[in-house]
Amino acid sequence: MGAQSGSPSGEPTNTACLVGTILPSFHGMSVHNFHLPLPETLYNRLREEARRSHQPATTVAREALAHWLAQTQKTAISDAIAVYAKKHAGTAADLDETLEASSIEHLLASDVE
């Protein structure tokens, strides 16, 4: 779905856009429509993946976006843990000696079994 739109200089440019379908609900959740202009190469890749997977392009885009957001959140959590660990390395918050001893006992017992 290519559309003509004007650039800031007033010259027409080609812009590929994907507009989601408005649905009353999506797996029991309310749905919001989101207009996302895409570069033509990305739009074509999305359409090709939709054809290849026999799914609507909106489904492919929704799943890709959800996956990317989940990965971004995992990275942020991992980064926050690394910052915390670095900040508290060598302090009382670094290691619980009782937990460490218990873990070692558990691992040694697991090796015997």
Explain what you see.
The protein has one domain. The termini are far apart. The protein is built from three helices and three strands. The chain is an alpha+beta fold and about 110 residues long. It has a three-stranded antiparallel beta sheet. Helix 1 packs across helix 2.
Q: How is the topology of this model organized?
A:
Layout (H helix, E strand, L loop, with lengths): L1 E5 L5 E8 L15 E4 L1 H14 L3 H32 L8 H16 L1
Antiparallel strand pairs: 1-2, 2-3
Helix pairs in contact: 1-2
Key words describing this protein structure:
113 residues, alpha+beta, 55% helix, disordered N terminus
Uncertain segments are 1-7, 9-15
Mean pLDDT: 81
Biggest beta-sheet profile: 3 strands, antiparallel
Rough outline = elongated
Count of alpha and pi helical runs: 3
Count of individual beta strands: 3
The ordered H/E elements are EEEHHH
User: Radius of gyration, Cα only, in angstroms?
Assistant: 25 Å
Calculate the terminal CA-CA distance, rounded to whole Å.
63 Å
Helix fraction, binned, reads 40-55%
Neighbour order of strands in the largest sheet:
1-2-3
Structural class: alpha+beta
